[in-house]
Amino acid sequence: MTASTSSALSQAPTRGGGRVRILGWLALLAVVGGQGVAFLISRPDRDMGHLQKIMYVHVPAAWCAMVAFLVVFVASVLYLWRRDERHDLLAAAAVEAGVVMTGLTLLLGMIWAKPTWGVWWTWDPRLTTTAILFVIYAGYLALRSFTDDAERRARWSAAVGILGFLNVPIVYFSVRWWRTIHQVQSSPATVDPAYVLGLRLNAVAFLVLFVYFVARRYESSKLERAAETRIEAAALTGGIHV
Amino acid sequence: MSMRTEAGRIAAVAWKDLMTEWRTKANFNAVVFLAVLTLLLFGFALGPDTNALRAAAAGVIWLTILFSGVLAFNRSYQLELEHGALEALLLYPGSHKSLYLGKLLANLAFVLMVELVTVPLAAVLYDLPLLGPLGGLALVLFLGTVGFVALGTFYAAMASRIRAREVLLPLLLFPMLVPVIVAAVEATSALLSGDAMGDAGSWMRLLFVFDVVFVTASVLAFEHVIGE
Fold first, then answer.
1. What is the mean pLDDT of residues A175-198?
2. What is the 3-state secondary structure (H, E, C) of chain B?
3. B116 at the A interface (CB within 8 A)?
4. Over 50: is that where the pLDDT of A190 sits?
5. pLDDT in tens, A26-83
6. Which long-range contacts (CB under 8 A, 24 or more apart) does B208-212 make?
7. Facing residue for B175 by CB, picked from A80, A135, A152
8. Average per-residue pLDDT in chain A?
9. Whether residue B42 has pLDDT greater than 70
10. How would you classify residue B25: left for phi > 0, otherwise alpha for psi between -120 and 50, otherwise beta?
11. Which residue among A101, A167, A216, B186 is least crowded, i.e. fewest CB within 10 A of its CB?
């Protein structure tokens, strides 16, 4: 590890904890509010009934997953460029939140698909690409957990994060040429005006929740790294000096 | 560093790897036997109906190549880890890219040789018309294998150096290979069934594009992965 990154991390614990906690409460409020609007105000769909409410979590979660993997890509490129460990920790935090959001998207999509399409799963490009994304970034997390050296872990994760992201459009188009049936994505431009408010509110709510997840994970991995650095230093000098 | 010395370095690494394998053939024999076994097991899994087997053959051939070939990549680096050979290789002058490209060539030759045994055997077991579309099939096998080996050689540079290497390499590699598998299986399947729709050509062009993208991305990223 280079001197600059270790000194940036050894100054932990940081003062970020309080702000993150406020963000957590905001996220809780936003999600409860957004889902409240979705359940109480917006009407059930003519054909799908209350099943349609799945959209208010499924679609925002899918958006957050996309944001997450974009953050991973940018943070990974920044890491390889600047070699600042904080970019690596940010990428890792975004992958964790992104994998959760992708899993939620897939699970809710299946619950919605069974009564609507008659099957839990179909080999449509968007579904298949989402599933592949889930596995690619689960592999990223596995790689991290098996690599002990922090600097090597950061470099390797960055490479995997960049290649994985570049592969997303390639997977999407290759599966698309293979076959297609998914309906056009739901967005404020394609759904009935009655659903726009609920969808917008929940999109914002999930984005706040996502930022909270990432911030929380980022803060805790900074603390973990600081602890590791101190243990290393203690091993070298023969005692812990707090 | 001129192009000629780079090419020389690439050839030297590839030659060294192939020579090491040639002297024992231990890995090659094991991988070929595993491939043969996989072909037989798919036969049992898909039932004895010849028509069903023939319909599934393209997918079976590619999965067999993937499951057996993936064993070659980790070994290509593990040999270097003994006695600190990797450090010595990295100390040689010139770019690390030639180390990657040399290993890619050696692995490519290795997997293509495995295919030379397994694909004719698949034709026998699954009753496939191999001789008709021979030229096209050879091209598809080559293009698909380049994409597979390019990513395999890249991910093994990481996976071979950590504890759970046997599990981790397929976990990282196989999801990335989805575009290659889709295009390779579609092209193979079209060729084996006479290519009445003329699909094989466009899938092959797509495979070529994937190869260019994956080789380029791996060459660029390798520098960050191999060094200390």
1. 69
2. CCHHHHHHHHHHHHHHHHHHHHHHCHHHHHHHHHHHHHHHHHHHHHCCCHHHHHHHHHHHHHHHHHHHHHHHHHHHHHHHHHHHHHHHHHHCCCCCHHHHHHHHHHHHHHHHHHHHHHHHHHHHHHCCCCCCCHHHHHHHHHHHHHHHHHHHHHHHHHHCCCCCHHHHHHHHHHHHCHHHHHHHHHHHHHHHCCCCCCCHHHHHHHHHHHHHHHHHHHHHHHHHHHCC
3. no
4. yes
5. 999 999 999 988 888 777 777 777 788 888 999 999 999 999 999 999 999 999 999 9
6. B208/B143, B210/A170, B210/A174, B210/B147, B210/B179, B210/B180, B210/B183, B211/B143, B211/B146, B211/B147, B211/B150
7. A135
8. 85
9. yes
10. left
11. A216
Q: Using alpha carbons, select from A41, A20, A70 the residue that is nearest to residue A202.
A: A41
The rounded mean pLDDT for chain B is 91
Q: Under a CB-based contact definition with an 8 Å cutoff, are residues A178 and B182 in contact?
A: yes
State the pTM of this model.
0.87
Which residue's structure tokens are 């509110």?
A: A201
Host H or E run for residue A108: helix A85-117
User: Which one-letter amino acid corresponds to residue B3?
Assistant: M
- Sole residue written with tokens 């397994």: B118
8 Å CB contact of B178 and A171: yes
Nearest CA in chain A to B220: A159
Closest residue of B to A150, CA-based? B228
Determine, for residues B182 and A139 on separate chains, whether the beta-carbon distance falls below 8 Å: no
CA distance A85 to A117: 46
Q: Quick one: what percent of chain A has pLDDT higher than 70?
A: 86
Q: Which residue has the tokens 């600097």?
A: A151
At B193, give phi and psi (nearest 5°). Answer: -100, 20
Cα separation of B16 and A136, whole Å?
Answer: 33
- State residue A47's pLDDT score: 73
Residue type, A110: M
Pairwise pLDDT comparison (B152 vs B133), residue with the higher score: B152
Best CA proximity match to A229, nearest among A2, A5, A10: A10
